[in-house]
Design goal:
The protein is an alpha+beta fold. It has one domain. Helices cover about 10% and strands about 20% of the residues. The chain is built from 1 helix and 2 strands. It has a two-stranded antiparallel sheet. The longest helix has 6 residues. The N and C termini lie far apart (about 35 Å).
């Protein structure tokens, strides 16, 4: 089983979800393409 997170999504276009640059594999480690999980709205929480 893969743990995947979509990151750097902008706008409402569904075509973003077909591009590898927005899909980050987190687990298992041997398939990992990213290093961290991004929490929703984390940038907003830091700025307030």
């Amino acid at each position: 089983m893969l743990e995947v997170q979509f990151q750097n999504i902008t706008g409402n276009g569904l075509d973003q979800f077909t591009k590898k640059k927005t899909e980050v594999i987190l687990e298992p480690a041997k398939y990992r393409t990213g290093t961290k999980v991004l929490a929703p709205y984390s940038a907003i929480k830091k700025s307030s």
